[in-house]
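Issue: copy button drops trailing tokens. Both records pasted manually instead:
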Amino acid sequence: AGRAVAHAMAEKKAISQQIGFTNINAPFDGTVDRLPYKEGSLIDNGALLTNISQLDDVYAYFSIPENIYFQMIKEKSLSGQPDIRLILPGGMVYAEKGELRTADGDIDRQTGSIQYKAKFRNPDGFIKHGTSGKLTISDPRKDVVLIPQKAVFSIQDKQFVFLLSKDNTVTMTNIILGGTLDGLYIVAKGLKRNDVIVMEGTQSLKDGDKVTIKKVDDKA
């Protein structure tokens, strides 16, 4: 009788193991896509049953052109944690801020760009896998001096402008640039608020020249 009981228990264990093979457990929580098979369907070994998307955190992949990448490195726009926002289709700005993560270590020679990714928290599962959108990376600064790029000229890797004095003479002044913004240079050092500089014709000027001020119509 004891042997019969042991044999029955062994068979029960083997059957339980076989039944256990029919249960599929995901290694993480997520959202399940549609199931293409009906209950009782016969499937092949290794067949894809469905996909599960883990949406607690989502990643937005984007590419930065090589020239802009090096400019941003020079301006330190990618250092620390810049303000990264995700603009969803329709213009909606996603509430969560992004965290910049490096995706690739090399520049793609075919596209001339480097790929990055930004991580966004997605606690409510609002963003779904495959969502498209636009990213904005901003580097807020206060009380900066902006000047037209055409007012700046270079001599031996240094940048200069012609600073106008009260008697309308010009002085060649070395400046340090801190970035660009829509065709303007951000001046990190060398100029202060209310300084007047020469915007055009710098190639024909020299230190100490006297100039005539021409009023420009802002509406033109």
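Record 2 (pasted manually too):
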Amino acid sequence: EEIWSGLADTDQESFSYVGYSELDTIEGLKDQDRFHKTVESLALVGVTGEKKLILFRAIAIVLQLGNLVLEPDPEDEDARAVISSREELKDLAEIMGVESEMLEAAFLIRTMRARNEEFKVPLNVTQAKDSCDAFAKEIYAKAFLWLVRCINDATCAENNYQGTPVSSNFGTIGLLDIFGFESFETNRFEQLCINYANEKLQQKFTQDIFSSVQNEYEAEGIELGEIRYDDNTDVLDLVEGRSG
């Protein structure tokens, strides 16, 4: 079972998206040890054989996309982008099973349609790099969602015990995963949306746990000392208010 011959003699420093790290051991296990554990865990949820190879090849495609080097064409006055790393492009085409020329055109040219006409617009380096990164992100996202579906199918009681006498008595376990606050050296619109969602969740929590309970006690005439808690209304007003 071979994921891709191009992975031979490579490590994390071989791929730009991963980069260099001085840390190669976490909790006593190296990356190769964790890889074997990952393979064993995937087998538990039915990801074996061809399924496993497809998943790993998708990840290899993502890694290889990050290795494409884009530069401005020195012979073009508009500085259209060209892929200077020809071997990296060839390797990417090999693992994807497509022609190099097809990939190159997809990354370097935008096709626009107006009425019944079609235009080919060359991209500059920044635009072409964004195109490659967006493609890598989309592949990774779809691979992640596919893996989640595999786990759900493997752990679904209805799928595994359908037709048994107790199949109608299965309960459910609900998992809620919420965003964590983000603060980077450079924060963008994505961080604003994530942190805004967190502030709304925090407000909902304080209202349900503190404010509503306190109001209920007061309505029933039950003495309750004042409960002090942080109110983030002023933070939300920055976004939701008239000046937001």
